[in-house]
Specification:
alpha/beta; 2 domains; four-stranded parallel β-sheet; Urease, subunit C, domain 1; 22% strand
């Protein structure tokens, strides 16, 4: 398909206000504009259908209606995206906006790549919470951020960055309380080491089960979800047993644990592209083969990249790795829409195009059901009803 054209008609915004909107500097709740998007296709990820000659009506920050041209009357400002595919804004359930550059630059690159929501799972000094607030308050453009606050791990363990680790169940509970007091949306706990150790020692675990249970129970008492860095078989099993809501990184999940995760809908977020770049080809192939079998057994997968370890803006390269696990294109896309929405605690609000959902919408040049690399060719981004000028990002 050729690159889309962008034609704006009717109810044109004032130049000053339009500039603010396109820069992403207007808080979505302050705008009640009505816009009509049209394109060659709309991918309805919920139904698994492609709507040809599609039209989406956006009112304020919400989707009002969608269907085929001729079935719905256009309203307000009209944006013709030409020969493109529209789909929900993508969601990355595991990033680090404070790594690999400045928070602002990383946020801009992420939004430009079509990721309208991210879950930041670790920073020092609550910097990711500050970035969340800066974006929310319109200080610079970026994706919607769900932020955990600092990594929570044992002293001298995997996530003891700059001495932020703690030791003992009481200390883990106290850190969870502090993180929530500082505004954390969820808690990130580091239970294991990395891939090479997990492959050699299935029973490896960096923290005690008492510490892990204390952190999870305290977080749930404070009504916060818990994401656990767990790669070894024992660490994943312990995290699931004690009530973790999310398992991050690809790991060696046992069949009984896969069954428990499938029953409870506990997602694993593999971050395969980043792991592939950091281990030997032989070890990565061992992980890939294991996860391929786990997916066949019903392992729930949600999309995440560990961006910051990889370059921000390259998030969509993860889709190719997910396809290598046997996921069909639609299922791979659902990991970054429907399923990632659940993994970040925003089910039915984002990751779907339907009436009442937040109007996070992207256009890609190509049909991602035919070629997942089309998701690396984003040509248009709308976040909460606001078109984003990608050239300024």
């Amino acid at each position: 398909m050729s690159a889309p054209t962008f034609l704006f008609r009717r109810n044109v915004l004032s130049p000053a206000f339009a500039a603010l909107v396109l820069l992403g500097c207007v808080t979505p709740a302050h705008s009640q504009e009505t816009r009509t998007l049209t394109a060659r296709w709309i991918l309805d990820v919920e139904r698994g259908e492609v709507i040809e000659n599609g039209i989406i009506i956006v009112k304020g920050d919400r989707v009002a209606a969608l269907g085929r041209k001729g079935e719905i009357a256009p309203e307000g400002q009209q944006i013709n995206l030409g020969d493109a595919t529209l789909l929900p804004g993508l969601i990355d359930a595991h990033v680090h906006l404070t790594l690999g550059g400045t928070g602002e630059a990383n946020a801009r690159a992420t939004l430009r790549a079509g990721f309208t929501t991210v879950q930041d799972l670790g920073a020092v000094d609550y910097e990711n919470i500050k970035i969340r607030n800066f974006i929310r308050d319109g200080k610079f453009p970026g994706p919607r951020v769900v932020a955990s606050g600092p990594w929570l791990g044992v002293s001298k363990g995997t996530c003891d960055f700059q001495g932020i680790g703690v030791k003992g169940a009481d200390a883990f509970r106290a850190r969870v309380q502090k993180d929530v007091d500082e505004g954390a949306d969820l808690i990130k706990v580091c239970a294991s080491g990395w891939l090479a150790e997990a492959a050699e020692r299935p029973d490896a675990c960096k923290i005690s089960e008492e510490e892990l249970r204390a952190a999870i129970d305290k977080a749930h008492l404070l009504k916060r979800r818990v994401a656990v860095h767990a790669i070894s078989e024992r660490a994943i099993a312990a995290a699931v047993t004690h009530g973790a809501d999310l398992i991050v990184h690809g790991g060696f999940t046992s069949k009984p644990t896969v069954a428990a995760m499938a029953q409870r809908r506990v997602f694993q977020v593999p971050t395969l592209f980043s792991l592939k770049k950091s281990v030997t080809p032989e070890l990565y192939e061992k992980l890939r083969a294991h996860l391929t079998a786990a997916v066949r057994d019903g392992l729930p997968i949600a999309f995440g990249t560990d961006a910051g370890v990889i370059r921000h803006g390259q998030n969509a390269k993860e889709f190719i790795e997910l396809a290598a696990l046997g996921l069909k294109p639609l299922e791979a896309i659902r990991t970054a829409t429907l399923k990632a929405a659940k993994a970040v605690g925003m089910a039915d609000q984002i990751g779907v195009l339907k009436g009442g959902a937040l109007a996070d919408i992207i256009a890609v040049n190509g049909n991602p059901l035919d070629d997942l690399s089309a998701l690396q060719k984003v040509t248009f981004v709308m976040k909460a009803g606001q078109p984003i000028n990608r050239d300024t990002l």
